[in-house]
Design brief:
heterodimer; A: mainly alpha; MetI-like fold; 2 domains; 80% helix; 0% strand; disordered C terminus; B: 331 residues; alpha+beta; six-stranded mixed β-sheet; 20 strands
Chain lengths: 495, 331
């Protein structure tokens, strides 16, 4: 199972090296105010952003699926679109629009308006799956609309909301680009700085291990939330449209709120990007832009191929088998999901420096960077392969066998045609996500290699906003495609 | 010669014994129903025959040849699963021709589609079909390569009651016309009794009775089977010389002398005008017939099924028994 090895190498190496640093060195690092402050800052930001995302995401989901709001499709779209803007591009656009915008509040604002769709999308999906009859029951038993919302509706969507909130928290933990552009030092930035400045890299290692621990704690919460029994099953097959609550006199207020949200999440980045891009296109060096685009394209292409090659056997295995081994395999592959790009990058670059075999072959090479992408994006590919493997149920294979088809013919005529679209979509998703990856790229790229993301980051660092803007625009274009794919899939998942 | 012969088949999943020495012999061209409650091992039996499960012991032969060692694709045994399992990316025509080779293809496809009443549906996609149509395509697909045997796994359970009944007739007719040998697995008594030439009643991994539907219904092998295949009326009796003395008078039986427990079917109780020996306690009216709860002069309540006009509650009636009673030893 090469996928499992790939998923485990960075964590294992990180743990091993941290352990090797020795207890006293670790204790010394842990005692430093830098670590404690970074923890405090990261938790404060994650807490604020997650809470704000929960409130906004549940509110927009409820408005879209359970009230008589007009232009619901447009509101739904504008609550999904922010995902198309990577947070560091959003941060760049705010920084460029309001010079001097930096620090905690602006970071919290940018991360909130960029990641509330992580709550909105699953909650809206859960609301559309949940049975409106439950709410009707509550109303007929004498509860008002608000009490019904808190006592019935909210309970039904709680698992989806919790899962979304944990995604937000994980996202804040792992975010590197946005907070570094907005100059708010969370863990990821401390790790990067410690790596850049440190002669002795124990500091970076201990910080990275601490971040992994923090992430694992949150992840354990997610697994607990997904435990069987917590997920309410829809009991009847009724697919009636829900009764929509009239907004009444609150209508203007609701529209005002949604307008403000749209301006903050889409308006500001859109306006700022457009303005600076117009500025930048005239001055940009086309050869440089093409070079970065080409580098991004071939690195991401290689990452997509490697990831799919690693993930297809595991995905098919996990989808076919039940039992603890399959579950464990799946969990291991999802480790990459929990690991911030900075951590994977750091661990691999460390390995490249310290392990002779790796250094001679791979230090500062494209293959190492591609491998890093693959570890980071395994879960993404895995999700797609698993979902598509579910299309080809084992029963279909058995029927084909009973009709005389041998294993080769079964794979070619049943399994492959049914899973290929999903696998291709997974590959596309990996490809496009790799194109906008920043922290692991910064750490692992061969010297002189510039991708769209690193160009944007470097130019923003020196406040060359018009030079950075074309890269930001290209990244937005690239990022919009997976969101489109994702929203199409969610659209198809209706009851 | 038997088409399908199963002897002493055993299969366990961990601690759970699914098959505990099951025997079954199905003749060529016959439709046999395996009837049992859920969890009795009937689906496991079918999956072993199809080759999807490997039995722990016993033997399966088709046309005299053992097939235990063969992969599913080499067995020439067609399967119709519970919900059809049509290949979703292939048209009806390509689904049906999946198991066919060579030139005879298109002719055979339209032939079997005609048999299941779906002639001309070749170009439809599975998602454009209703549940009943999907099941019929699944049957046509299984029949197309003229397999040695067709296995049907609760093929009607996902359909609603009305559709189920009309589909049963069509399926039985299609199988008969094609001369196919088939084994149908079901937990539905009506389905088993109405559809098949012979019924194998299965319980806890064994076949407890294998006989014609009427024999299974009239003289079940044991009291469990009696209650399982239909409503049963139980009477305590004293038997002497082929006549059982009961609260309803004398009833003919094949039981030996002594105490016995008699089983009657509710429709064997006849209500008449003569000397009353019971009163009507409750009536459940269904239109075409009615279930009447009777209270005999001395004894426990009994259930009778009455065609046509039903009596009123509280009315005294004379109850006689039509036909013979099946006797079981007192437990």
């Amino acid at each position: 199972m090469p996928a499992i090895v790939a998923a485990l190498v960075p964590v294992a190496y990180l743990a091993w090296r941290t352990g090797q640093a020795g207890g006293s060195a670790i204790a010394e690092q842990l005692g430093r105010p830098r670590l404690i402050e970074a923890t405090g800052r990261t938790l404060m930001l994650a807490g604020t952003v997650t809470a704000a995302c929960l409130v906004i995401g549940i509110a927009t989901a409820f408005l879209v699926s359970r009230t008589d709001l007009r232009l619901r499709a447009a509101v739904n779209l504008s609550a999904s679109l922010p995902l198309a803007v990577p947070t560091y591009v959003a941060a760049f656009s705010w920084r460029a629009a309001f010079p001097g915008a930096e620090g905690f509040w602006i970071s919290a604002l940018v991360l909130t308006v960029s990641s509330f769709p992580y709550v909105h999308l699953p909650v809206a999906a859960a609301l559309s799956r949940s049975d409106p009859a439950l709410e009707e029951q509550s109303r007929s038993l004498g509860e008002g609309p608000w009490r019904t919302f808190f006592k019935v509706t909210l309970r039904q969507v709680a698992p989806a909301a919790v899962a979304g909130a944990l995604l937000c928290a994980l996202y804040v933990f792992s975010d590197f680009g946005a907070v570094s552009i907005l100059n708010y030092r969370t863990f990821t930035q401390e790790i990067y700085v410690a790596w850049r400045l440190g002669f002795d890299h124990t500091g970076a290692l201990v910080l990275a291990s601490a971040l992994v621990l923090l992430t694992l704690i949150v992840l354990a919460g997610e697994w607990a939330a997904a435990a069987p029994g917590r997920r309410a099953r829809r009991e009847s097959a009724s697919s009636r449209a829900p009764v929509r609550l009239p907004l009444g006199r609150g209508r203007p207020l609701v529209y005002l709120g949604l307008a403000v949200l749209a301006v903050l999440s889409l308006g500001v980045p859109g306006w700022s990007l457009a303005r600076w891009t117009l500025d930048g296109v005239s001055t940009a060096d086309p050869a440089e832009v093409w070079g970065a685009t080409w580098t991004s394209l071939y690195l991401s292409g290689a990452a997509a191929i490697l990831t799919v090659a690693l993930v297809v056997p595991v995905g098919l295995y996990v989808a076919r088998r039940r039992g603890p081994l399959a579950a464990a395999t799946e969990r291991i592959v999802y480790v990459g999901y929990a690991l911030p790009g900075v951590v994977i990058g750091l661990s691999l670059v460390f390995m490249a420096i310290n392990v002779d075999w790796v250094r001679e072959r791979f230090y500062q090479t494209a293959p190492l960077l591609v491998f890093g992408y693959a570890v980071l994006l395994l879960p993404l590919g895995m999700g797609a392969v698993k979902a598509s493997a579910a299309q080809a149920s084992p029963q279909l294979g058995q029927v084909a066998a009973s009709l005389g088809a041998g294993p080769v013919r079964r794979f070619a005529t049943i399994t492959l045609p049914l899973t290929a679209p999903g696998i291709a979509a997974g590959a596309a998703l990996v490809f496009l996500t790799a194109m906008k990856e920043l922290p692991a790229t910064l750490l692992l790229r061969p010297s002189g290699t510039e991708t769209l993301a690193t160009r944007l980051w470097t130019y923003t660092d020196v406040a060359a906003f018009s030079a950075a803007a074309p890269y930001a625009a290209l990244i937005v274009v690239v990022s919009a495609v997976p969101i489109w794919l994702l929203s199409r899939r969610i659209g198809r998942q209706g009851p | 010669m038997s088409e399908l012969r199963i002897e002493g088949l055993r299969k366990a999943f961990g601690e759970t014994v699914a098959l505990d020495g099951a025997d079954l012999a199905v003749e060529e061209g016959e439709l046999v129903a395996v009837l049992g409650p859920s969890g009795c091992g009937k689906t496991t039996l079918l999956r072993c025959v199809a080759g999807f499960e490997r039995p722990d012991g016993g033997s399966i032969t088709v046309a005299g040849k053992p097939i235990d060692h063969l992969a599913p694709q080499a067995r020439r045994i067609g399967v119709v699963p519970q919900e059809g399992a049509l290949f979703p990316h292939l048209s009806v025509g390509r689904n049906v021709s999946y198991g066919l080779r060579g030139a005879a293809r298109s002719g055979r496809v339209s032939e079997v589609l005609d048999l299941v009443g779906l002639g001309g549906y070749e170009r439809r996609m599975p998602h454009e079909l209703s549940g009943g149509q999907r099941q019929r395509v699944a049957l046509a697909r299984a029949m197309a390569p003229r397999p040695e045997l067709i296995l049907l796994d609760e093929p009607f359970s996902a359909l609603d009651a009305g559709l189920r009944q009309s589909l049963r007739g069509q399926v039985a007719a299609a199988l008969r016309t094609d001369g196919a040998t088939a084994v149908l697995v079901t937990h539905d008594q009506d389905e088993a009794l109405s559809l098949s030439g012979r019924v194998a009643v299965m319980r806890a991994g064994r076949i407890v009775q294998f006989a014609s539907p009427s024999e299974v219904y009239r003289s079940p092998a044991d009291s469990w089977t009696a209650s399982f295949v239909g409503d049963a009326v139980w009477l305590e009796a004293e038997v002497a010389g082929g006549v059982a003395a009961t609260v309803l008078g004398d009833v003919g039986t094949d039981a030996p002398d002594g105490r016995a427990r008699l089983m009657l079917r509710p429709e064997q109780l006849r209500l008449g005008e003569g000397e009353p020996n019971a009163t009507v306690a409750e009536v459940e009216y269904f239109g075409h017939d009615a279930l009447v709860m009777l209270e005999p002069m001395n004894g426990e309540r009994l259930r009778a099924r009455v065609l046509g006009a039903a009596p009123e509650a509280g009315q005294p009636v004379s109850v006689t028994v039509d036909g013979e009673a099946r006797a079981f030893e007192t437990a």
